[in-house]
Design brief:
By secondary structure, the chain is mostly helical. Helix content is 67%, strand content 0%.
């Protein structure tokens, strides 16, 4: 009987469906960040967009690295930072 892989963030067995569902959070997060940026881009300087992007990616990667059990939130921050 195969052993289910373990997710480092919460040490719970993950299924293929859960992995696909979590991976699917990144794309909509990127699109949402782009939409927000286009809506408010004329009101601020481009450096603030870059600062927000770096901050979101840092939060997402740090949350994944520390192993906190908030994997969906970490992936959303990561995706929004790249959006």
């Amino acid at each position: 009987m195969p052993i289910a892989p373990r997710c480092r963030a919460n040490s719970a067995p993950t299924t293929l469906g859960a992995a696909v569902g979590l991976g699917a959070l990144v794309g909509p997060s990127q699109a949402g960040a782009r939409t927000v940026d286009m809506a408010i881009a004329r009101y601020h300087h481009r450096i603030w967009t870059k600062l927000a992007s770096v901050t979101f990616v840092t939060i997402g990667v740090a949350t994944l690295w520390t192993g906190l059990p908030v994997l969906p939130a970490a992936l959303i921050f990561y995706g929004a930072g790249f959006g």
